[in-house]
Amino acid sequence: MERKQVFTGSPWESTVGYCRAIRIGDRIEVAGTTAMKDGKVFGKGSPYEQTRFILQTIEKALEELGAGLDNVVRTRMFVTDISKWEEFGKAHGEFFKEIQPVATMVEVKALIDPDLLIEIEVEAAAP
User: Fold this and answer.
1) 72-104 residue pLDDT tens
2) Taking the CB of residue 59, how many other CB atoms lie within 10 A of it?
């Protein structure tokens, strides 16, 4: 089966050895994605803005692999403060209100940068 990968230029991709997204057959997996832009945290202090930024990044990766948000079947959200779930959820709902994939949100102790509030990974079934 053909293996197609998407890279975003994050310095961690080459250091850690991963890609942003991969498609094998009709299956697409998107790696844990954070709100990093040019080495800096985007939307510092805002769960809503970080979530929107991440989902826009994921949407671009899916498009590069011939899919879209409507192909998403699962999202996993790792958040550093579950009490802010409504802000994370509001942004998630703006992208997935009509699609309604299965979703998980869990609180984690920390992410790779203390200013990151959320990391999202996605599974999709491509056309």
Assistant:
1) 999 999 999 999 999 999 999 999 999 999 999
2) 17
Q: Contact, 42 vs 50, CB < 8 A?
A: yes
Residues of the chain with pLDDT under 70: none
Q: Output the six-digit token pair for 10.
A: 């994050």
Q: Helices 85-96 and 47-64: crossing angle, nearest 10°?
A: 30
Question: Which SS3 state, helix, strand or coil, does residue 10 take?
Answer: coil
Q: How many CB atoms lie within 10 A of CB 88?
A: 22
> Rounded to two decimals, what is the model's pTM?
0.95
Q: Is 94 helix (H, G, I), strand (E, B) or coil?
A: helix
Identify residue 108 by its one-letter amino acid code.
V
Number of Cβ atoms within 10 Å of the Cβ of 40: 10
For residues 84 and 122, what is the distance between their CA atoms, to the nearest angstrom? 21
| pLDDT attached to residue 12 | 78
The β-bridge partners of 78 are 106, 119
Tokens, residue 50: 């970080």
**Alpha-carbon distance 57 to 16, whole Å?**
19
